[in-house]
User: Which sequence fits this backbone?
């Protein structure tokens, strides 16, 4: 029983939504986990072409010339699109229980964590998912966290360790736990249609 001194505890065994985001059978998911371990997450520097082929085989849409570094993790490849010439750095984790769309010439640097999922924290811990979009030319630098529902504008840049959330304007440089706009990536070009000091 909850009171002022004893807040309620949510029974996690009853939390809804864990498997609903899969959109595939348990067998397909199990096979993907094996292929991911052997060919995608593998820390050896096998070719990007092998990683891309494995992801495509499970439904990912991977463009031409994409670089996929070792230790990459992808939760559900059938919910992933990566445009041409993008670079996905070592140790990137795309925890995509919802659609993730990465444009062309995008960089996701080392150890960045991109997640589309969260939970209803005040009621039943039910799964909540929201898509993520990273537009063409954006650069999410190392060890950033990109949260569900985020839309990163064209050629924006997130500094290392930024919690990237909400709508990031085109050409913005964002930084910190509040994803604050701190400047323009390309001087002389507006940030989301607004001029900012260089």
Assistant:
């Amino acid at each position: 029983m909850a009171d002022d001194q004893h807040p309620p505890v949510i029974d996690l065994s009853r939390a809804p939504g864990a498997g609903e985001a899969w959109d595939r059978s348990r067998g397909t998911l199990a096979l993907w986990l094996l292929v991911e371990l052997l060919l995608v997450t593998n820390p050896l520097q096998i070719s990007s072409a092998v990683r891309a082929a494995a992801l495509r085989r499970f439904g990912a849409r991977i463009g031409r010339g994409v670089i996929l570094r070792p230790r990459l993790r992808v939760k559900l490849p059938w919910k992933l699109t990566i445009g041409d010439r993008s670079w996905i750095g070592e140790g990137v984790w795309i925890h995509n229980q919802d659609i993730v769309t990465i444009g062309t010439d995008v960089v996701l640097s080392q150890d960045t964590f991109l997640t589309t999922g969260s939970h209803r924290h005040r009621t039943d811990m039910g799964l909540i998912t929201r898509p993520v979009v990273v537009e063409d030319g954006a650069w999410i630098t190392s060890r950033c966290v990109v949260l569900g529902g985020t839309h990163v504008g064209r050629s924006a840049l997130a500094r290392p360790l930024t919690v990237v959330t909400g709508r990031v304007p085109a050409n913005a440089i964002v930084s910190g736990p509040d994803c604050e706009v701190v400047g323009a990536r390309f001087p002389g070009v507006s940030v989301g249609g607004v001029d900012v000091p260089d």
Notes: Residues 47-184 form a domain with the UDP N-Acetylglucosamine Acyltransferase; domain 1 fold (CATH 2.160.10.10). The radius of gyration is 18 Å. Residues 26-40 form the longest helix (15 residues).
